[in-house]
Design brief:
The complex is a heterodimer of chains A (about 450) and B (about 170). Chain A is α/β, with parallel strands linked by helices. In chain A, about 40% of the residues lie in helices and about 10% in strands. In chain A, the strands form 2 sheets. Chain A has a 7-stranded mixed beta sheet, with helices on both faces. In chain A, strands 3-2-1-4 form a 4-stranded parallel beta sheet, with helices on both faces. The chains are: A alpha/beta (about 450), B alpha+beta (about 170).
């Protein structure tokens, strides 16, 4: 059986981002089909598809949709295009190469959920991608697909707008995203109530990731059962895995949701560029617990990799060969969370820079073995103690790096410095051709 | 950082009139995206427009945005100081933002940042003495597969090397 491609199948075609090209490939036919069925049937089919959120949490999309209270209007849709998890770079390519697939997914979602106003919240750094979306929305509106009559259906209005953020990782967290969209700083809200009940401007709101929504046209055309059959267990479909770091062929690989991590790294990506053994793999964005090179023979399916002690999160796979200093890598990750902590909860606001400081101290040889223990203790007292998941996201890399690579940490204490020295980011540090679906960058 | 020799405008009345007119025109366009009673939602776009027109989000620009959106200046300041892409102080003519997160460093991002610091004679967040470039170290830009990456005046530059980055920054007027 040849590989089924859902999301990347049109990437690399000439003018793939235009409406004409999308339509020539059967685009917006799924919307017509959806408009001819009942919204309830679409929701049922999405449940059947085992589609799970591609933004990081892996929550069942159909189930999330059923949390909407029946009789409260208006409802809103927020499409999360904040894509800021280090190691993740997939949604931007959906937007660059097939924005109408996303718009069709939005249209189907809104019809299924009786939503008439949708926002695409895109990170501020994606200026070009925001412009591509604006252009696609203008095209679809001019063609009468979006706007007063959704897909030509009288009585169903849908407005879609792009909202650009201004640089804040926390705004990828769904409640912070809504705060930001309301014109405030991105402070996450206490849950419950969940956004599906009390969301944007206090109204029921569904927040889904770009990749999640982009699957909808395929699901409507081919049926939820067919989508489920592509995956395994309680996860259906394919995923965009983003591979970066020391691999020979970094890029975006669309694979079944339960694809094997080792196969992805060693075969699809050709192993390490240096030919050296893999030392560490971060499998699902920088928040996910790190795996040692000898632990990567695992399925990337949400539940399977959870059982193996990590998570496939946002699909961002970062590969490091054995010339890397894992303490330096952790120091940089710790710095990221210290930078991006919004400052609302004390354990995270105070704990993230403290962790960064200790890891830096170890890296530079000023620490004792007791500092390594303190680092672990500190991470343990941040995890689970904050309003949003950023606290956990900051703690998990620290906990896992120390657990998996303790000898490396202690070697720094012993040597009173970094044993790897100047070349801590690897012996080969250079850009390589990236394989993004059928495109080469 | 070389502080330009001018005072920050504190009140919208100190802003150039034609700039304010331009601000209002562009804001009117943005406001169409939000329900009529939710104007305050446009705070990020409003401050971005202000930054583009007036150079940076001064206290005067914050007050202008708050006034037009029917909300308090405190709300504008909260947003202006929270998001890293909004500048509350004057910057150089160009802004160069180099990612040094993990995937970029694994492919040479740290070397690029160190090189540009030396070339421009600045530390992180500093502006070159000629006022040409403000250099910043930033977090993941979503270009990990095509790393290392940087933004120059919000335009993405990817698959960089020290030489390539040097050339791009050297070419800024």
């Amino acid at each position: 059986m040849s590989e089924t491609l859902i999301l990347t199948k049109r990437w690399g075609k000439k003018d793939s981002a235009t409406l004409a090209s999308y339509r020539a490939d059967g685009g917006y036919e799924a919307l017509s089909k959806a408009l001819a069925t009942s919204p309830a049937d679409i929701v049922e089919d999405v449940k059947r598809s085992n589609l799970r959120g591609r933004g990081g949490a892996g929550f069942a999309t159909g189930l999330k949709w059923t949390f909407l209270p029946k009789d409260v209007r208006p409802r809103y849709l927020c499409v999360n295009a904040d894509e800021s998890e280090p190691g993740t770079f997939k949604d931007r390519y959906i937007i660059e190469h097939d924005p109408h697939m996303l718009l069709e997914g939005i249209a189907i979602t809104c019809f299924a959920l009786d939503i008439h106003l949708a926002y695409i919240y895109i990170r501020g750094e994606f200026k070009r991608q925001a412009e591509i979306l604006e252009k696609a929305i203008a095209e679809a509106s001019a063609a009468g697909i979006l706007g007063a009559k959704l897909g030509g259906k009288a009585g169903f209005e849908l407005q879609v707008h792009v909202h650009r953020g201004a640089g804040a990782y926390i705004c990828g967290e769904e409640s912070a995203l809504m705060e930001s969209l309301e014109g405030k700083k991105g402070y996450p809200r206490i849950k419950p109530p969940f956004p599906a009940v009390v969301g944007l401007w206090g109204k029921p709101t569904i927040i889904n990731n770009v990749e999640t929504i982009a699957n909808l046209p395929w699901i409507v055309q081919n049926g939820g059962a067919a989508f489920a059959a592509l995956g395994a267990g309680k996860s259906g479909g394919t995923r965009l895995f983003c591979v970066s770091g020391h691999v020979k062929r970094p890029g975006i690989y669309e694979k079944p949701v339960h694809y094997n991590l080792k196969k992805l790294v060693m075969e699809d990506c050709g192993g390490t560029a240096s030919g050296r053994p893999v030392k560490a793999v971060i499998p699902g964005g920088s928040s996910s617990p790190v795996l040692r090179g000898d632990e990567i023979d695992v399925s990337l399916e949400f539940d399977a990799i959870k059982a193996a002690g990590s998570m496939s999160g946002s699909g961002g796979v970062i590969v490091m060969d054995d010339s890397v200093c894992v303490v330096r890598a952790l120091a940089r990750i710790a710095k990221f969370y210290a930078e991006e902590s919004c400052g609302q909860c004390t354990p995270c606001r105070e704990g993230t820079p403290w962790m960064e400081g200790i890891v830096e101290k170890i890296e530079h040889g000023h620490a004792t073995a007791a500092d390594v223990d303190k680092l672990e203790q500190l991470a343990n007292s941040i995890a689970g103690m904050t309003i949003c998941a950023l606290g956990d996201a900051a703690a998990m890399p620290v906990q896992s790096f120390v657990k998996k690579f303790k000898p490396d940490f202690l070697a720094h204490v012993e040597a009173r410095g970094c044993p790897v020295g100047e070349r801590g980011w690897g012996v080969v540090q250079e850009s390589r051709e990236a394989w993004v679906g059928g495109i080469r960058y | 950082m070389s502080a330009p020799d001018r005072k920050m405008p504190l009140d919208p009345s100190e802003l150039p009139k034609e700039g304010v007119a331009k601000f209002d025109a562009e804001l009117a366009h943005v406001l169409k995206r939000f329900p009529d009673d939710k104007k305050a939602a446009a705070m990020i776009p409003a401050l971005r427009i202000g930054q583009e027109i007036f150079g940076y989000v001064s206290t005067a620009v914050q007050k202008l945005a708050a006034d037009r959106l029917g909300t308090s200046p405190a709300r504008a300041e909260e947003v202006a100081t929270f998001y890293v892409m909004l500048d509350t102080e004057p910057t150089g003519r160009h802004i160069v933002e180099v990612c040094t997160n993990v995937s970029c460093c694994l492919t040479g991002g740290e070397r690029i940042f160190e090189h540009l610091k030396k070339k421009l004679g600045v530390e992180n967040k500093g502006t070159s003495a000629d006022g040409r470039v403000t250099l910043r170290e930033v977090e993941c830009l979503g270009a990990c597969g095509t790393a290392p990456a940087m933004l120059v005046d919000e335009e993405q530059h990817e698959r960089l090397s020290v030489e390539k980055a040097d050339q791009i920054v050297g070419g800024l007027k």
